[in-house]
């Protein structure tokens, strides 16, 4: 099958199906309702289930239920809807179940607006829910990458028995781009007999599996949290993904940006390069684990005077950039949070002004 | 009135009343249900209202409703309950309403356990909900400080028209300590006529106030988020609170810890001092804004070889310590997350081992 | 205090207050929302509570909660809202708690319309909820009577420890009539210490009261149901209320009608009388207990050829008329169920045609 | 397929499947949870859906949703659960949608007990919900009849576009009896294209169907209610079902009883007959429409001195018996309502005492 032109939201839905996911629970919310619309007819076509919950709170627990049975399951929502799932996400992570969440972010806080935003960076990477857990968070910069990330998300969720979140924005969901789907995945997680509560009769072994996040005994809860921490540390070692841009040049500034925002930055870098003004970029593809080392190394280049976090939020990723830079150069932030995506000219002006200040 | 011996949870409830708060909405959850129990009879006694919601989701919006009318309002819960309030908290912050939240943290994630924990540091300081907002977060180390923080929380919430969160743990809630209550506050926020929807007839002016977080126009949402950011930047300048301990000595290590955890650290520091091994401590009293500068300055002391974040969580505050230290010395983490509070001997061993490694 | 002109809905609200009821829980629904509006400011004025529930299901259980504590409590709703309270009503009756319900009926079934109707006769008199219980049901024909019935409803509910329902229609709620309020009631049910769960400390005795409807043992449940039946039989003996009209004449037909419908019938009877055509009427003021004996006696008059149930419903009260008449004469039904109240001319034509048929 | 031994609850579930019903929504409640358990695995086996709702309120509206799309749908519950569905049932009847409800009654009111009961007779036959509507109500006396009634219920619901209710009790649900299933039904209601909202593309015609119960205009609502009344009158003419027992004898008393209660009465009649004491019985198989004429005719027999309504409730069906008897002989009631089914000896004593009184 070759490339086809698809809207981002529909491509995300189709990607889940190609990933062998037959369980989709959701509650509609702009700007991602097309995913639910698409899967409302596509899921039955492949023998899968789409169920609209009574609320996002209910959806979160439907996801938990299916995940606990070892079924491939995902949901999609937008910012306020994800907040309503916070408790369930913490439970799923605590019970070590695999599940895939897609957040097509809208402007916030509160009702906010329905235009593109990256304002849920903190919620996704630092845990909107309570307790010590982490989501593996991926941020696509286009429709093709969104498809690939969704399809990778399921095996990653199963490898770590942990929720994976795809963090997109309204542009990713609404734009049309040519897409080529990777090979389909097998429909069953490979290891689920070891932990999932899928009924005694369907398992070869005679184990009784128990899915839970309750550990009233302090030693058990401590041990449980050490198991979780070991997983998150392993993610930090094995799952960091990022893309470098123009890092061979002697750049004066390093941009860190992700998602659709990074595409504008790339254009700005190209324009600046034509002017003889070199700027490099690290684009995190995983937001947790964060490419700390790549950024730390990038700012070691002598020519680099400043690291700039460019985000469609009021200063969230910049904190991870600060941690990564470890004081090697100043860290600046530039962002917007109303729904208008900054244009290349704004980026160019900002970068120049930051560099100028430092000279 | 002199000092009286009170249980932490009850003292927190009484403090809200002394702060002139007559509206308390809550849903019971261990280990803070005594607050609801206490206020169930105490609120009516002072002409106030305690209403148990149908769920924490409902409670969050009851708080929003009262706050939007300009009434002093607070709620208390524990970790999973706070997750369920995430959406409402984002709405309240987005609509710029004052409200006070108390989170007596329990072990997590998921159901976890009911023993003391500090595992909701991220949720409180980085925003459990969606969108660009911040809570002003205070962490008491004892019952007296809890009382003072609760009583300060109301005027701070009103000054910034922003939710304030008190982050305690089960020990704070359950222990009994002598308490002296500060002078009572006036029962009415001073500025509420300017923004609250408290009914046309009761206001002197003829303004129509509107409480909302919806801004569909991108320029309006952008402007709104800049207003919010300006508030959070002002908090960073004006509201940082912390306590230093043994910073006059030539300490080899700097501990950063908060809440009840810091009391154990203090004992460990005293024991080590008796041995001639100097260790300093910065105890953040506000977690947002975080005492970044105080920590940065503290690690500049030549003798200081390492900064250690000691927390009853699996590595959350350590990220803010890393940001604050800005690469000036190594940053280490030590923590537990099962409900057992580390004892001084553990702290002593850990600090010594970190320092030893570095020599 | 003399007579004042009041809208029915507001007069009903005021009557509850004069009856010493300080607890009102409700969810707004046309055509009775003015009761909630009125009590939203009037209840606080007298130190009472108005709480809007999250739904009528919630309201039903708020009523149960307050009733179980021995507090005077009432709620008001309209047809679909009462359906949602069906389970709670059965629980309240089963647990023998006093409470007052007002149903300002709208057209049905389903969403129906918002115009006057008497279509919930069956629901009110035969029990919308499950199990063997009865409501004491009163049906006012005007605003003054609505006020009196509401004020009688509380002591009756307390006498029988059983829910009482006032069944009105949109006309009762919307029309304005001069009202004179009876003397106020004491604010406390007299017998509540014997059964209500109002807290050990506030009672003189040391009894532990238990409010429940669960009796898993068949003998206990049987005994419980016999107690309930004895109460309903006592109501049948002691609480039947009705009004006779023109029963001294040698009427050819007996009308049975209630509520606002009966006012139109009365006009029709007056017109017919002027023509020399005598028609009598029994107007049930209590629908349960139903004035069976009064009707049976009325149809014994030799001149009486037919009994006609005239109701704004499609044939509900007619069944109770049939039971009462016991075959002594034919029983006919006339009704409308769209919201238009029949006019006297329609009644006249109908009565004449029924009588004509029989001659 | 021959006879198989099955538990009543499971047989009811299987019957729905044989009737071509592929949609089952329910919330578990004793004493009928086995139906949900059975269908939880059986529905997927035949390509159907079992969905457990969040509450019975939700289930009622799931049923409405599926019914409105023209799908065969049913639900099962027990007394309090049916109360929670009252509003939805009224909506479904008002919108003229076919659906099948099974109520395996438990003792009431309120929580009551879990033993057999017939205490929801009024709720089923007089409408638990609001407004002018009727359910077609069938009451099986054994497992085989339950199966047949469930299978007839679907085409009847579709013929009348009205909810049908099967009223059983815990004995029907729990007992095992040999069952033979009738031929399977086609899986699709025949007339659904005329009214169901099943999507434009799947219909041959180009009609836009609208499923609703809202008629704000009084003339439209009146016309709508006349259409409904005409359906209920047609049911009264065409759908009355009952069984006679010993009506050829010169019986001194006529028993009216239904469901499992009637089986005990039959035994009592046999014992009495052996003594030379003749008693007849009419067993309503449909409770609405009620076999009024059959009963009226039966009491015309000269030997008949009394009609006795024997029911596991405190006097509900007796009212319909009174209406049917039309004063031709005395009507008595005997019943229990605790969960213990009366034994034949009790029936015998009661009948004898009633007859004795009259002589």
How would you sum up this structure in a few lines?
Chain A is globular. With 359 residues, chain A is an alpha/beta fold.
Layout: helices, strands, pairs:
The structure is a homotetramer of 359-residue chains.
Chain A: E1 4-7, H1 8-18, E2 23-26, H2 33-45, E3 49-52, H3 56-68, E4 73-77, H4 79-84, H5 86-94, E5 99-105, H6 121-126, E6 136-138, H7 143-160, E7 163-169, H8 170-174, E8 176-179, H9 218-238, E9 242-245, E10 253-256, H10 259-274, E11 279-284, E12 286-288, H11 292-298, E13 306-311, H12 317-325, E14 331-335, H13 344-358
Parallel strand pairs in A: 2-3, 2-4, 4-5, 5-7, 6-7, 10-11, 10-13, 13-14
Antiparallel strand pairs in A: 1-8, 6-12, 9-11
Helix pairs in contact in A: 1-2, 1-7, 3-5, 10-13, 11-12
Q: What does this protein structure show overall?
A:
Four copies of one chain form a homotetramer. Chain A has helices spanning 8-18, 33-45, 56-68, 79-84, 86-94, 121-126, 143-160, 170-174, 218-238, 259-274, 292-298, 317-325, 344-358; strands spanning 4-7, 23-26, 49-52, 73-77, 99-105, 136-138, 163-169, 176-179, 242-245, 253-256, 279-284, 286-288, 306-311, 331-335. By secondary structure, chain A is an alpha/beta fold. In chain A, the strands form three sheets. A seven-stranded mixed β-sheet of chain A has the order 3-2-4-5-7-6-12, with helices on both faces. A five-stranded mixed β-sheet of chain A has the order 9-11-10-13-14, with helices on both faces. In chain A, helix 3 (56-68) runs parallel beside helix 5 (86-94) and helix 11 crosses helix 12. The radius of gyration of chain A is 21 Å and the shape is globular. The mean pLDDT of chain A is 94.
